[in-house]
């Protein structure tokens, strides 16, 4: 069992002990409904051309995917929901542990979420991330990658009860979020590895990203 999977399992066990059963059931049903819709089938996949993105980082500086690929052999793009998402934070920390190895392989890591630059800065500082954390306001880029869905109505008051205010965090009124997704993109702007899942508790293994890059070199 990888460290990320183990940490997710530990978090889930702790959550089950403290969260009311009826809330857990609502959350599970919402995830199952999203899975039944199979929205991940609309996401970009291996072999597709990756659209460019020009997004502000945590301090407001614009970062371009295509310019990143001019300077690096690969780009690793990880879409996550926000600083409020414990699963996202676990995944980002796991990616940070692989960041030096990714750099040595000629890859640059870009994490993308719909949250505001201020919230992205909080994410970067909270998780001690050395890679770029970008703000995709209104999920413009995530929509181009086919990743966006609207958070179920029945989940919104539950999230608020957890002090998670998605519109405030994203600085816009919708409850749209990206599915967790990770892409490896080569210099030709081609996607050579993809991970997309409707279930936000399922995350890409950073070692799989490393292995995909090694296989492509």
UniProtKB/TrEMBL annotation:
Q: What EC number(s) does this enzyme carry?
A: 1.11.1.24
Among Gene3D superfamilies, the record links this protein to: Glutaredoxin (3.40.30.10)
UniProt KW keywords: Antioxidant, Disulfide bond, Oxidoreductase, Peroxidase, Redox-active center
Q: Which Pfam families match?
A: AhpC-TSA
Protein name, as recorded: thioredoxin-dependent peroxiredoxin
The residues covered by the Thioredoxin domain are 44-217
Q: Report a single Gene Ontology molecular function.
A: thioredoxin peroxidase activity
Q: What does this protein do?
A: Thiol-specific peroxidase that catalyzes the reduction of hydrogen peroxide and organic hydroperoxides to water and alcohols, respectively. Plays a role in cell protection against oxidative stress by detoxifying peroxides and as sensor of hydrogen peroxide-mediated signaling events.
The signal peptide annotation in the UniProt record is none
Q: Name one GO cellular component term.
A: cytoplasm
Task: Give the protein family.
Answer: Belongs to the peroxiredoxin family. BCP/PrxQ subfamily.
Query: What SUPFAM superfamilies does the database record attribute to this sequence?
Result: Thioredoxin-like
């Amino acid at each position: 069992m990888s460290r990320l999977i183990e940490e997710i399992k530990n978090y889930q066990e702790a959550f089950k002990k403290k969260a009311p059963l009826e809330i857990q059931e609502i959350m599970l049903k919402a995830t199952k409904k999203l899975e039944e819709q199979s929205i991940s089938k609309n996401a970009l996949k291996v072999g597709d051309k990756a659209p460019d993105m020009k997004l502000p980082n945590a301090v407001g500086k614009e970062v371009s995917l295509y310019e990143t690929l001019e300077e690096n052999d690969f780009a690793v793009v990880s879409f996550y929901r926000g600083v409020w998402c414990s699963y996202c934070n676990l995944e980002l920390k796991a990616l940070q542990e692989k960041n030096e190895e990714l750099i040595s392989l000629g890859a640059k890591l870009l994490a993308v979420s719909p949250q505001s630059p201020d919230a992205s800065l909080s994410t970067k500082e909270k998780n001690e991330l050395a890679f770029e954390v970008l703000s995709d306001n209104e999920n413009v880029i995530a929509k181009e990658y086919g990743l966006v869905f609207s958070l179920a109505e029945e989940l919104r008051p539950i999230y608020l009860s957890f002090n998670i205010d998605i519109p405030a965090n994203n600085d816009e009124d919708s409850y749209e979020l990206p599915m967790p997704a990770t892409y490896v993109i080569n210099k030709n702007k081609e996607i050579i590895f993809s991970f997309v899942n409707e279930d936000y508790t399922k995350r890409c293994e950073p070692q799989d990203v490393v292995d995909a890059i090694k296989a492509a070199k």
